[in-house]
From TrEMBL:
Residues 39-49 have a biased composition (Basic and acidic residues). This is DNA-3-methyladenine glycosylase II. Residues 1-52 are annotated as: Disordered. It comes from the Bacteria. It comes from Rhodococcus rhodnii LMG 5362.
Length: 317
């Protein structure tokens, strides 16, 4: 736990409601939940020294703090506090990827075969919360991930709300959609978010309820609905679906790095988007799973050429 303030139990039980998830395949809750965090200073997700992963969310029932631990190789425990606790506990299996089915994943490349063998615990979990995943994805459009994480943290710290129940120090619940709609332009400016992305966030917040209904759609239909919003493209939709839907095939087309990583790692050369899509076609419906396996296995490779892309300061706009 946080040494400074491991718990704040005012008005809440330190135990909370909980469910235990059992899985036939091995689990790794820290690995499964890692993609939902937005950098080491994300105010909405924290991994504490005891190995627990703490997260906050806005659920249909209201804000919630939840803690995910792993008592055993095949077991996960989810504890939750706040009005949205029942919603989170009902999705506990989805959160830890207990029912993520990789039985049809049949890679051919030796590197992927070995990565899959060494990481049987790799799961793709889902939160079921579309707007929650969409906002950070929009912030990550066309900018360095580091800069996007800074913007996310700044906005959540200014406009988020305290996490219910016991929680690590400074954990916050992200703003609700109506708050994102009313954040003034100067605040987005201070957060380093350019007018194009801030307008997209406002549009998304205006239809947040209908976006949540898209969580039950098939992937292609989900992409169609989400990309109907001005400023949301297939890259943003894929990153949202990976987290909200647990979409194992949500390949991030248009990514600055992924085509080159796939090309250099598996074929020893650069690839463009179209070639990558064709190259990975035999891995449907597991293309995102394949890319993620390359990342977590340490096999991913892209040669460094020239200086690193500079961070862009959008606060001058």
């Amino acid at each position: 736990m946080d040494a400074d303030r491991p718990f704040d139990v005012s008005g809440a039980s330190a135990v909370g409601d909980s469910v235990t998830v059992e899985s036939e395949r091995p689990l790794d809750v820290a690995l499964t939940l890692a993609p939902h965090g937005r950098g080491p200073r994300d105010p909405t997700q924290r991994r504490t020294p005891d190995g627990a992963v703490w997260r906050t969310s806005r659920q249909p029932g209201g804000p919630v703090t939840y803690r995910v631990t792993q008592p055993g190789r095949h077991t996960a425990r989810v504890q939750a506090w706040g009005p949205g606790a029942a919603d989170v506990l009902a999705r506990a299996r989805d959160l830890v990827g207990a029912d993520d089915d990789a039985s049809t994943f049949a890679p051919r490349h030796p590197l992927l075969v070995e990565a899959h063998r060494r990481h049987p615990h790799l799961r793709i979990g889902s939160t079921g919360r579309v707007f929650e995943a969409l906002v950070p994805a929009v912030l990550e459009q066309r900018v360095h991930t580091i800069a996007a994480h800074r913007s996310w943290a700044w906005l959540v710290r200014r406009y988020g709300s305290p996490a219910p129940g016991p929680a690590p120090r400074d954990l916050l619940v992200p703003p609700e959609p109506r708050t994102w709609r009313t954040i003034p332009s100067w605040a987005y400016h201070r957060a380093g978010v350019d007018p194009s992305r801030s307008r997209t966030l406002v549009r998304c917040a205006e239809v947040a309820d209908s976006l949540e209904r898209a969580a039950t759609a098939e992937y292609d239909e989900f992409v169609r609905r989400v990309t109907s919003l001005p400023g949301v493209g297939v890259w943003t939709a894929a990153h949202t679906a990976q987290r909200a839907l647990g979409a194992a095939d949500a390949l991030a087309i248009g990514d600055y790095n992924i085509p080159d990583i796939v090309g250099w790692t598996l074929e020893g050369r650069a690839m463009a988007d179209a070639e990558m899509v064709e190259y990975l076609d035999h891995l449907r419906p597991h293309r995102h799973r394949a890319v993620w396996l390359l990342m977590v296995s340490g096999a991913a490779y892209k040669p460094k050429r020239g200086p690193r892309t500079p961070l862009v300061d959008h606060t001058w706009h």
